[in-house]
Write a structure and sequence with these properties.
Bound molecules: 2-acetamido-2-deoxy-beta-D-glucopyranose
Strand content: 25-35%
Length: 368
């Protein structure tokens, strides 16, 4: 069981990682509607389908108040022209959408009615790369107030309950394996008030510059992973130790895969909270130059004192990691036993925590 959870998927995943890059939609400038205060040109509205036995999985597309309205998010996406370069809002009404979505159109704002009750869920898991409930290969993407879930191991019903009485309340009866909730491959992607719920590999922050603000990320093993160049601002990270109780309840928050000194990628956490149950390493090195920074985060008492794990790297190899948690607060913030800690000067810290780390040209403020 422990071997299953901690299985070294290093090589396998690198192979997949590169095949994933071929189809990224690149190079489109997104245009805002100058007459619309929300910048978008039009809105596609999605409402939950009627109960399954009535709809028979048939997507209905109808006009409602002159607006096109859909019963699946994928259908709304598919209606948008391939080479779209105008900001378009897909408004997702409250509901649970059981669909596996792939986004390859640029300039999309995916906006839910509210993150608590606007859920996209699926349970794929056989092939990690193909398991994501939501996967994006599009540049210029914004998501707001919506939650992405992979339910293969995640017990959606028990979410948000931290003091669980049985070991399957955070997870479920399935053996824990890699099951991605969202995989983000496009550059210039921003997430506001979004949820990412899963157990292992929840959020595959694979590549590109990304901004996450006021998001909630649940998981137990490598649940924020990949080679993204990302700032996580004021996010809540919830360790589901209970879901991996059978293998000891000790997991890994991040697995960042930066592989060279020139690679600008890294996960930067500003403020926010790490909480939950079990124990968590702040990160383990999925790449030789893995880079993860926490500044000003509140740590519950679940942090493993050594903090960082070298995973498969040994001896001198560990000197290329950039791992630090600084100015943090809470019962888990004692850094005296951390290993591979590379504290940054205030000035260096500034370079990573400033929005310019991911947004030198101002793409974030140009998005809706
Ligand atoms: C979907 O519903 C429409 C309208 O009721 C019907 O014409 C069509 O045949 C249905 N398609 C399928 C695949 O069931
Ligand atoms: C997006 O995916 C669809 C379905 O696979 C494909 O037909 C379309 O050409 C793709 N569009 C772009 C811009 O890659
Ligand atoms: C930070 O996140 C918390 C929820 O964890 C929220 O209550 C608070 O308003 C957020 N702060 C800002 C400045 O958005
Ligand atoms: C780091 O976090 C501390 C505590 O929240 C904060 O005062 C400081 O401004 C942050 N430093 C940078 C460079 O963001
Ligand atoms: C941990 O938090 C306490 C209380 O806020 C603070 O005094 C201390 O400096 C923090 N430790 C570190 C290593 O930041």
């Amino acid at each position: 069981m422990a071997a299953m959870i901690l299985r070294p998927f290093l090589l396998f995943s690198f192979v997949c990682f590169y095949t994933g890059l071929d189809n990224v939609v690149k190079g489109l400038e997104c245009h805002s509607d100058p007459n619309n205060p929300f910048k978008v040109w039009y809105t596609l509205s999605v409402s939950p389908p009627p109960p399954r036995h009535e709809s028979n999985g048939n997507v209905t597309i109808k006009r409602k108040n002159g607006q096109l309205s859909y019963t699946s998010i994928q259908a709304a996406i598919d209606s948008i022209p391939d080479q779209n370069d105008k900001w378009i809002q897909i408004f997702v009404n409250t509901g649970t959408y059981r669909e596996k979505i792939s986004l390859n159109r640029s300039c999309i704002l995916l906006e839910g009615a509210n993150a608590q009750n606007t859920l996209i869920e699926f349970d794929a898991h056989q092939d990690t790369l193909a398991s994501a409930t939501f996967s994006s290969v599009a540049e210029n993407f914004v998501a707001k107030h919506i939650t992405f879930v992979n339910t293969y191991n995640y017990n959606l019903y028990g979410r948000g309950i931290y003091h669980r009485t049985s070991r399957h309340q955070s997870g479920n009866a399935n053996i824990v394996t890699q099951a991605v909730a969202a995989m983000i491959n496009g550059d210039k992607s921003a997430f506001y008030d979004c949820g990412f719920f899963g157990v292992q590999d929840t959020l595959w922050d694979n590549q590109g510059r990304h901004f996450f603000q006021n998001c909630v990320i649940d998981g137990a093993v490598d649940f924020i992973m990949g080679n993204g160049q990302s700032i996580y601002d004021n996010c809540t990270i919830r360790m589901l130790g209970n879901a991996i109780a059978e293998s000891g309840g000790v997991g890994y928050i991040t697995a960042q895969s930066r592989a060279s000194d020139e690679d600008p990628s890294g996960f930067v956490f500003k403020g926010g909270v790490v909480e939950g149950d079990g124990k968590a390493w702040l990160g383990r090195a999925w790449g030789s130059h893995s880079r993860v920074i926490f500044n000003g985060t509140y740590f519950n008492d679940i942090i493993v004192p050594e903090g960082w794990s070298a995973w498969d790297f040994v001896n001198d190899q560990v000197k290329y990691f950039t791992y630090t948690d600084q100015n943090c607060d809470g019962p888990g913030n004692d850094t005296s036993r951390r290993q591979f800690n590379t504290p940054l000067t205030d000035q260096q810290m500034q370079q990573f925590t400033d929005l310019s780390y991911i947004d030198a040209e101002g793409w974030i403020s140009n998005q809706p």
